Amino acid sequence: MAEQIRTSCPRDCYDGCGILVERAAGRITRVLGDPDHPVSRGKLCQKCALAYNGVWRDPEARLQRPLRRRDSKASNGFEPISWDDALAEIAAQLGRAIESHGPESIFHAHYTGTCSLLASEFPLRFFHRLGATDVEPDTICNNAGHEALGYVLGTSVDGFDPKTIADSRCVMVWGANPSASAPHAHSQWLRETSALVIVVDPVRHATAEWADIHLQPFPGTDAALAFGMMHVIRREGLIDEGFVSAHTVGWEEIEPLIEASTPHRTQELTGVPVAAMEKAARHYATGPSLLWLGQGLQRQPRGGNVMRACAVLPAITGNLGKPGTGVCYLNGDGPRQIDSDYVSAVHLKRAPTPTISHMDLADALADPERARAFFCWNMNVAASAPRQRELRSALSREDLFTVVVDLFQTDTADFANIVLPAASFLEFDDIMTPYFYLYVSAQVKVDEPPGEALPNPEIFRRLSRAMGYPEPELYEDDRAILDVVLDRTGLGFGFDELAERGTIDPFPDPVIRFADGQFPTPSGRIEIASARAEADGHPRVPQPDADARPGDGQFRLLSPASEWLMNDSYGNDANVRSKLGPACIYLNPEDAKALALEDGEAAVVSSQTGEIELRVRCSDIVARGVALAHKGRWPKGEPGASNVNVLNPGERSDMGESSSVHGTLVRIAAA
Ligand SMILES: Nc1nc2c(c(=O)[nH]1)N[C@H]1C(S)=C(S)[C@@H](COP(=O)(O)OP(=O)(O)OC[C@H]3O[C@@H](n4cnc5c(=O)[nH]c(N)nc54)[C@H](O)[C@@H]3O)O[C@H]1N2
Ligand SMILES: Nc1nc2c(c(=O)[nH]1)N[C@H]1C(S)=C(S)[C@@H](COP(=O)(O)OP(=O)(O)OC[C@H]3O[C@@H](n4cnc5c(=O)[nH]c(N)nc54)[C@H](O)[C@@H]3O)O[C@H]1N2
Ligand SMILES: [Mo]
Question: Of 78, 429, 450, 572, which cross-links 67 as Cys (Cβ 3.0–4.6 Å)?
Answer without folding.
Answer: 78
